[in-house]
Predict the 3D structure of the following.
Amino acid sequence: MAKEMNIPLMKVHMDDDIKKAVLKVLDSGWYILHEKVHEFEEKFAKFCGVKNAVCVASGTAAIFLTLRALNIKQSDEVIVPSFSFIATATPIMEVGAKPVFVDIETRTYTIDPEKIKDAVTRRTKAIMPVHLYGHPANMDKILKIAEENDLYVVEDACQAHGAEYKKQKIGGIGHVGCFSFYPSKNMTVCGDGGAVVTNDEEIAEKVRKLRDHGRLDKYVFDLKGYNLRFNEIQAAIGIEQLEKLSKWNEARRRIAKMYNQALDDLVTTPIEESWARHVYHLYVIRTKKRDELRDFLSRYGVSTLVHYPVPIHMQPAITNILGVQQTLKNTEKFAKEVLSIPMYPGLTEREVEYVSGKIREFFEGSN
Ligand SMILES: Cc1ncc(COP(=O)(O)O)c(C=O)c1O
């Protein structure tokens, strides 16, 4: 069968400005935690509407260092959704604490605040909502529970650069926000990278130290830290990408609108709550015929992926350690039904029509 088109799931934007910025760093002789990193941190903090951004080696490192800075440790518990990438939970275990998994809302696929209440114990130290696929979690309800129980709120914002909750950028709504700049994200540093954003000077200072061996002065260290630093090349790329992020997010929203109109009667399309500004890191549809649709699309050159087929609480890496035995109804149901279809700013109208047309052909042919 001849494929009419080949459409990837996502594409990293590359241009001459980025290449020139990288070459400039190579010639500068400064490579780690120098001027470009500080410039990017300043610009990213401003973009998120917070006082501090501290760049680190990855999104996973951002979460891990945040938990260390908050002194979350052995015997503590952190409430998280299970419907996420595994790195939402593994840093919690890395500091010796226990992830407590909570089910998601059916509309946004983000953590269900009503179910958080039942998961709070005297060991709970933090709630970590995930702004999944680029849609913000229901923050007011989460913040209220946190306040009533004296808990930190750490936003896993790794999939939601530029998303807004009630017109405020996510990341700066809880005590701390953690971002990833992995290549598939809405903005990248063309490799691994991450950032911790916060208005709290003390937390920011602690993360700054922890990422760099716990350094107080050149060769004086007052915290047991790590090498989870950010480099000048990453920062130079980050600066270029950040400049274009808002324009790219707009393009993602336009593409989502086209998909919504074309697919609404065939599958469950993503919802944008009235209080949210979705940035469509992923465009995720839901159908009981997910696996058949996936096979069909692949035959016609349309790439898709499942985010995520195995919920975290069912991952062997987690159950082998925690022995978790619980049922999360929505999480487990949606893991069988979600499908991410191509979404990136450069996707053309013709490509969107092609993907949508193939999905229609699948359903109309199979009905
Ligand atoms: C929700 C979520 N949390 C955490 C991470 C970890 O980020 P990184 O891959 O940069 O370590 C990712 C990204 O992959 C993610 O999507």
